[in-house]
Write a structure and sequence with these properties.
Helix content is about 65%, strand content about 10%. It has one domain: Outer membrane efflux proteins (OEP) (Up-down Bundle), CATH 1.20.1600. The two termini are about 70 Å apart. Strands 1-2-3-4 form a four-stranded antiparallel β-sheet, with no helix packed on it. The longest helix is centred in the N-terminal third of the chain and has 67 residues. The protein contains nine helices and four strands; from the N terminus they run αααββαααββααα. Helix 4 runs antiparallel to helix 5, helix 4 runs antiparallel to helix 8 and helix 6 packs antiparallel against helix 7.
Length: about 425
């Protein structure tokens, strides 16, 4: 009967476990980043913009249309060969040489300008996902440490109760240990809430629900102190904007140039008594149109040149900012690394020895309950401090990669390079 009841109660659990699965595995940070990139609506919008610009290549310019006209003489003009009755004309104008190619370059350069914007977005997604993944790890690590600390406090409470029963410690010792456990329980519940918040942030950036993230520490890796500034997406955007503006300047220059035209006029001549009567006329024409009445493009060119100059100053400021941020993050990384190693190898082992010694002394009435609780809490606080330093180290490492302009995993960078060459 009891076996049947267990099956009855466990059946719904298995049913819902298999019918509403979460993410089946512990995803790595790289998996989360790739998922965020695949599901990001902004990247999809940028892809559509690139496709739209590339579809305009070759269609951005066409010569003026061929002009065909017909004229009829209601009052014919008499010529030696006879009266002019009607006329058919055909004329084609041509833009200044090179104007067509200048217009055709603009869609390609517009598409090229969007590529570093994609790189910036990928860079931002990587940074956001990495930061929140390490935040989730940090809170889950604090939960693990808090649970272990509560086990120690439970042992202390049990010990004080036993000692109180035989009159070796006052009842207040039991109450103090129980109070300390209640404080830790409150922290435990707070960390559980922080874990759920971190999961929601991961779901927001990636579109998937995860319970844990498989992380790998990078503390053994050397600090990156250099970066290839010429390939940084923030600078690449400025470089491509300059290229686009220079192409526009070339186009504006060519717009002010004259257009050429060629044409043919055919005249139908009526018959008369002359021997050459009935001979039709055919005339070829060559013309040039000078845009003396059109608005000169000098103001537009001056504005474009001003934008290029402004970006040159901005470019230098961004370079200084990038190098400064990299130096700052390198110092943070080194400080966190030093702190981690000192806590792991020196401080925490000493605190654990002190805790063990004091706990043993308490069992033999040579230490106070307050000192034991303080020793337990000291180790707990140092462990939390170590977890915080580890998380901050990884976040600083992620920030360093973010500032260096590294956009993605090598496979993703290869994909973006392929888009560049299309």
């Amino acid at each position: 009967m009891n076996h049947f009841i267990k099956i009855l109660f466990l059946t719904p659990y298995f049913f819902f476990s298999f019918s509403t699965p979460a993410f089946p595995e512990e995803p790595t940070i790289e998996t989360l980043v790739e998922t965020a990139i695949q599901n990001d609506p902004i990247l999809k919008q940028l892809d559509k913009k690139i496709s739209a610009e590339r579809s305009k290549i070759g269609e951005g310019f066409s010569h003026p249309p061929l002009q065909i006209s017909y004229g009829y003489f209601f009052l014919p003009i008499q010529t030696r060969n006879g009266p002019q009755r009607q006329k058919i004309s055909m004329k084609q104008s041509f833009a200044w040489p090179g104007l067509a190619s200048s217009v055709g370059e603009l869609p390609a350069k517009n598409a090229a300008l969007i590529l570093p914007q994609k790189a910036l977005r990928v860079r931002e997604l990587r940074f956001k996902v990495e930061q929140v993944a390490w935040t989730l790890w940090h809170h889950q690590k604090q939960i693990t440490l808090t649970q272990a600390h509560m086990v120690l406090l439970d042992g202390l409470i049990s010990s004080t109760r036993s000692l109180n029963l035989i009159g070796r410690v006052p009842k207040s010792a039991v109450s103090l240990a129980t109070l300390e456990k209640a404080k830790i329980v409150d922290r435990f519940e707070n960390e559980k809430n922080n874990v759920e918040v971190a999961k929601k942030w991961i779901q927001r950036w990636t579109g998937i629900k995860v319970e844990r993230v498989l992380v790998q520490t990078s503390i053994a890796r050397p600090i990156e102190k250099t970066t290839q500034l010429e390939k940084h997406p923030r600078l690449d955007v400025l470089d491509r904007a300059d290229m686009l503006d220079r192409a526009k300047i070339t186009l504006e220059d060519k717009k002010d140039m004259p257009q050429f035209s060629i044409g043919v006029d055919y005249f139908e001549i009526g018959e008369n008594e002359n021997a050459s009567s009935g001979q039709d006329g055919l005339m070829a024409m060559v013309g040039v149109s000078i845009p003396i009445w059109s608005t000169p493009s000098g103001a537009a060119i001056e504005a474009l040149e001003g934008s290029i100059i402004a970006r040159s100053f901005l470019r230098e400021n961004i370079k200084k900012e990038i190098l400064s941020d990299l130096e700052i993050e390198a110092l943070k990384i080194e400080d966190h690394r030093r702190k981690i190693r000192y806590l792991e190898k020196t401080i925490i082992p000493l605190a654990e020895v002190y805790r063990a010694d004091l706990t043993a002394e308490f069992e033999t009435d040579r230490a106070k309950i307050q000192d034991v609780i303080e020793a337990l809490n000291r180790v707990y606080r140092l462990q939390l401090e170590l977890a915080d330093a580890q998380a901050q180290f990884e976040k600083a490492r992620s920030k360093q990669i973010f500032e260096s302009g590294n956009t993605a995993h090598p496979d993703l960078r290869s994909k973006m390079n392929h888009e560049e060459n299309q």
